[in-house]
Amino acid sequence: SQTIHQWPATLVQPVGSPLSLECTVEGTSNPNLYWYRQAAGRGLQLLFYSVGIGQISSEVPQNLSASRPQDRQFILSSKKLLLSDSGFYLCAWRAIDRAYGYTFGSGTRLTVV
Amino acid sequence: GQQVMQIPQYQHVQEGEDFTTYCNSSTTLSNIQWYKQRPGGHPVFLIQLVKSGEVKKQKRLTFQFGEAKKNSSLHITATQTTDVGTYFCAGQVGGSNYKLTFGKGTLLTVNP
């Protein structure tokens, strides 16, 4: 069966520090991968998506970046965090046949202080 | 760009009452999906609707996709405390095969 792992679960980082969040998927090949951010009490904002290794599409210009070094690995990064980067970051995958919905990871709660 | 509007933003009900959340898109959708997010948790996929006028049921939950494929609804009959959470709709536009646009969600609270 397919599983998605996302870590860490919580993170407190000072302003200006770097960020690296990792997401891996097991049990599937060539998934579509996504990074979403959810501000407190609000909806889901798509940040990046990837349809293959090295292929990244950015939805929102900001100081975040994403990379997909392996088929089932998706990384969200920042060189210098801002206070406004605080939020709940969710990784998700979807099978390429799109017969099913997104499967989300358990998320990372990031607080920038 | 594409927008998906969802109402109401909040809904508080007594246990046993019914609940409905509505979703409207500014553009015709190829499909619509519904998710549930429990407090402190992550969104969990409930269902996908593809056909115009489609109605699907999951126990006490009834999902509808409008004839014009621009609106959808989720109806819960006789709510229970386990139904508490935020319900999101998410629409996919034809041609944009890789991404969904999520509504802002409806937070449902149930008073026992």
Annotated CATH homologous superfamily of chain A: Immunoglobulins
Biggest sheet overview of chain A: 7 strands, mixed
Indicate the CATH architecture of chain B: Sandwich
Give the CATH level 1 class of chain B.
Answer: Mainly Beta
**In the CATH hierarchy, what is the superfamily of chain B?**
Immunoglobulins
Would you give the CATH topology of chain A? Immunoglobulin-like
Report on this model:
The complex is a heterodimer of chains A (113) and B (112). In chain A, 0% of the residues lie in helices and 58% in strands. Chain A has 113 residues and is an all-beta fold. Chain A has a single domain (3-112), classed as Sandwich (Immunoglobulin-like). In chain A, the strands form two sheets. In chain A, strands 2, 4, 5, 6, 9, 10 and 11 form a seven-stranded mixed β-sheet that branches. Chain A is globular. The termini of chain A are far apart. Chain B has 112 residues and is mainly beta. Chain B has one domain (4-111): Immunoglobulin-like (Sandwich). In chain B, the strands form two sheets. In chain B, strands 2, 4, 5, 9, 10 and 11 form a six-stranded mixed β-sheet that branches. Chain B has a five-stranded antiparallel β-sheet with strand order 1-3-8-7-6, with no helix packed on it. In chain B, a hairpin with a 2-residue loop joins strand 6 and strand 7. Chain B is globular.
Explain briefly what this protein structure is:
By secondary structure, chain A is mostly beta strands. Chain A has strands at residues 3-7, 10-13, 19-26, 32-38, 44-52, 55-58, 64-70, 73-78, 87-94, 103-104, 108-112. Chain B has no helices and 11 strands.
List keywords for this structure.
heterodimer; A: 113 residues; mainly beta; Immunoglobulin-like; 7-stranded mixed sheet; 4-stranded antiparallel sheet; 11 strands; B: 112 residues; 6-stranded mixed sheet; 5-stranded antiparallel sheet; 54% strand
